[in-house]
Amino acid sequence: MALPPLSKERLAEVLTTAPSPSALYDALSHYEPDANLLFTDSEVTGDAELLSVFYSSYLISLLLINETPEARMLTHRMPPTLVAKDQTLQNSIALLQAVWQNDHVQVYKGHFKKRRSRT
């Protein structure tokens, strides 16, 4: 059975209806080939916001199912130009790095320090 194409609406549906982290990962993993068609190494050719939400959600789903090595590999498959300018992806990657290095305190301090300064 063919999946509906990757879109903001479809991604929102997947994110809100997945009954478990493993189900979320499973659903998102089927859309990675679609996401890969929306960028090249030098530019994003599709919807940058869609890619940001997709890749940050996909990375977090991998962390939730304790697939840290695969999450690290995912960072190499993300659109490099988007990662360079997208704060959501940068924060997701920083979280991954902290988990990988078992430096949870540093992520907590850094993340919440930034949030408090915005309010």
UniProtKB/TrEMBL annotation:
CSN8/PSMD8/EIF3K domain location: 52-109
InterPro entries membership: CSN8_PSD8_EIF3K
Domain of life: Eukaryota
Name this protein carries in UniProt: CSN8/PSMD8/EIF3K domain-containing protein
UniProt source species: Byssochlamys spectabilis
